[in-house]
């Protein structure tokens, strides 16, 4: 009997195992799934295999933009028991429990924006290891746009250009933006108004006085819409210069007032200071030298009848002066 080549033998063996029901096949929708905020999402997953005692089902979740390797479990079924786990444990369940007849559909109630991502349905049924038994479902939670924020930048004088911007912090799918001007107004010149529905920006060029008015931005997706308004005031260039000059004059007057106030305050504080007193180290003209008493310097002259006082402190001595006697 001739031997079969290796690849032919392996192919025949795999075909035999598949026909024997030893290969797990998982089926999930190919199209992404979307569910409105707060509703219940059903993530359909079916499989075909001969369920045995080692059958196990696992649902896991990975956030958008991250690899499958970073997924984390949200529900187990093994040994005949169901084990919800993780932050979604109170909101996840199986459409059919136990999931042993080919249906492994997951139910997720009260969906949140954070539930948007990829869900993995994986069936393990040893010894069925001939396929990966894995299905991926992408879920998007639909959220209406939040109230957008309107802003404006640029030159708002005649002949200038300005940009009006609009953005919503929430909304899935991402909202588109449309600017409209309220009221009646002349038709703008071609190219003077250009808007980007994706970024929410409206560019106004070659402004005129008729460009003034109220502009409304509307953010829209399949869940609803929200809007904000902005008032644009276009001025003459001369008005802008006059306004700048007036502001400069007011600032100058304010600075002068502050300087005058500080000067007056300084003068008042200076006037309140006490005058300087005469120093105690200076000698008066009639002062008595240290160590010489007044009794010593003054004596009575019985013949003359007057008191003699030295002319200065420098000529004073403790001896009596001799006066010439007149015969």
From TrEMBL:
Main location class: membrane
Ranges annotated as spanning the membrane: 242-264
InterPro entries: Ig-like_dom (IPR007110), Ig-like_dom_sf (IPR036179), Ig-like_fold (IPR013783), Ig_sub (IPR003599), Ig_sub2 (IPR003598), Ig_V-set (IPR013106), VSIG2 (IPR042475)
Topology relative to the membrane: Single-pass type I membrane protein
Residues of the Ig-like domain: 38-125, 144-233
Pfam annotation, one family: Ig_3
Compositionally biased intervals (Low complexity): 311-327
Protein name: V-set and immunoglobulin domain-containing protein 2
Species lineage: Eukaryota, Metazoa, Chordata, Craniata, Vertebrata
């Amino acid at each position: 009997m001739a031997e079969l080549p290796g690849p032919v033998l392996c192919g025949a063996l795999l075909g035999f195992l598949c026909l024997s029901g030893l290969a797990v096949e998982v089926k999930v929708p190919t199209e992404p799934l979307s569910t409105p905020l707060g509703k219940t999402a059903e993530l359909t997953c079916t499989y075909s295999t001969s369920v045995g005692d080692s059958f196990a089902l696992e649902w896991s979740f990975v956030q958008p933009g991250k690899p499958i390797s970073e997924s984390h479990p949200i529900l187990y079924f093994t040994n005949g028991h169901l084990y919800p786990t993780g932050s979604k444990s109170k909101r996840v369940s199986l459409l059919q429990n136990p999931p042993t007849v080919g249906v492994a559909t997951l139910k997720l109630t009260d969906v949140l924006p954070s539930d948007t991502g990829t869900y993995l349905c994986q069936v393990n049924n040893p010894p069925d290891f001939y396929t990966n038994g894995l299905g991926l479902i992408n879920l998007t939670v639909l959220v209406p746009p939040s109230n957008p924020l309107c802003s404006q930048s640029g030159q708002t004088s005649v002949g200038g250009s300005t940009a009006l911007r609009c953005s919503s912090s929430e909304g899935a799918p991402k909202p588109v933006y449309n600017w409209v001007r309220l009221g009646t107004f002349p038709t703008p010149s071609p190219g003077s108004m250009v808007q980007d529905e994706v970024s929410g920006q409206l560019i106004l060029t070659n402004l005129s006085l008729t460009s003034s008015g109220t502009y409304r931005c509307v953010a829209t997706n399949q869940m609803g819409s929200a809007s904000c308004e902005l008032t644009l005031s276009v001025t003459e260039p001369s008005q802008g210069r006059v306004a700048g000059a007036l502001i400069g004059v007011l600032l100058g007057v304010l600075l002068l007032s502050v300087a005058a106030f500080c000067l007056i305050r300084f003068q008042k504080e200076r006037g309140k200071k006490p005058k300087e007193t005469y120093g105690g180290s200076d000698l008066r003209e009639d002062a008595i030298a240290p160590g010489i008493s007044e009794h010593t310097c003054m004596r009575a002259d019985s013949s003359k009848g007057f008191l003699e006082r030295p002319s200065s402190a420098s000529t004073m001595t403790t001896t009596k002066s001799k006066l010439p006697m007149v015969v």
